[in-house]
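Bit of a strange request maybe. I'm writing a small parser for structure token strings and I need a real example to test against, not something I typed by hand. Could someone generate the tokens for this chain?
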Amino acid sequence: FYLEIANPMKGNLLREDEKIITTKEDRKNHGIGLSNVYDIIASYNGAYRVDDTDEEYKIQISFPL
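Reply from user aminoacidic:
Good idea to test on real output. This should exercise your parser:
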């Protein structure tokens, strides 16, 4: 199964351990969605890739069926 999600953005992505992290100051209450996505990818033996430009980032996710 393959899924690609694109999200508009301005500026640069912040990454930590190859994962996207929020740029918002209140990190305790933001960035939760992607954290959950990374957990789901790991629990179902999936893989992901992130590509970004100055205007958007895309996360491509695949799961074995």
